[in-house]
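The material for today's practical consists of a large collection of protein records. There is nothing in a record beyond a sequence line and a structure line. As an example, a complete record with its sequence and its structure tokens follows:
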Amino acid sequence: MRPEGLIRILFIVLLLTTSPLAGQEFTIDTELFAKLNDSAENGDVVSQFALGACYELGKGTSRNVTEAAKWYRKAADQGYMAAEFCVGNCYFNGNGVPQDRVEALKWYRRAADKGFAYAQYNLGTFYAKGDGVVQDLSKAVEWFLKAGNQGEAGAQYNLGVIYYKGDGVTKDFVEAYKWFNLASAQGNADARKWRQIIESRMTANQIAEAQKMAREFRPSKSSSTASRGGGADFKGPSSGTGFFIAEDGFMISNAHVIEGSTAIRLVTSAGLISAKVVKVDAANASRCSRRRAGLRRCRWWQAVECGWGAR
């Protein structure tokens, strides 16, 4: 079991750097922080969210969870689902606000209803454990399915356990194996162990069927997007394993990082810069974006995942 209360924020931001590759540690200088602050003060929702993360992690400024909660809330009040998720984190942990399970659940639900997979996973866990709500395994399965179908590995693992044990669902080894296989493919070590255990109880045909189901699995897209205060709809930040910037000015990224986005913006020391998808490589599940305004090099920062698996 992951330690209860282990919640790390989801934060994706692109930063100017001197290297064309994005794999090393970085800092946010005071100039960039000031630009983010100015943009956030002017009501830009992405900057408000990014500023909250800077205060949360102490990037470009001293760590201040009260300021972090304030800026997350400003972005959340504009309907930015990643910020709604982070406000839920603040209330769950008591960071910058009084600890309050009811408020945490409220904000997680707002993000989950918009299709934010990590919030859906959290709600599934609350219902599985009866933490702050009446325990309801059917609702837990419902939320884990929403998150798992979007590719969230923790939810996929939990679904494997649920179908293996028959908790709230009809016991189904084939379905359990499928979910364990999907979570294992994303590096979930527990899923690999459970997959080996369940194999000994399955026939060769059942294993083949489950493997086929896993191969044919395609993550679903969020059914809803976050809405900006001005009315323009756009997708909240996505998670991914990373990308690199080519010297000719193209950004190469995994598909799920920007798939389905209606707007792509880079937060840089030059300000907010728009980008657009110019090539799709379906075979390799990648996306390629051309950056504008002469930006030569960017950097990816990602702190992903929240939660505590229901075991």
Observations:
- DSSP finds twelve helices and nine strands in the chain.
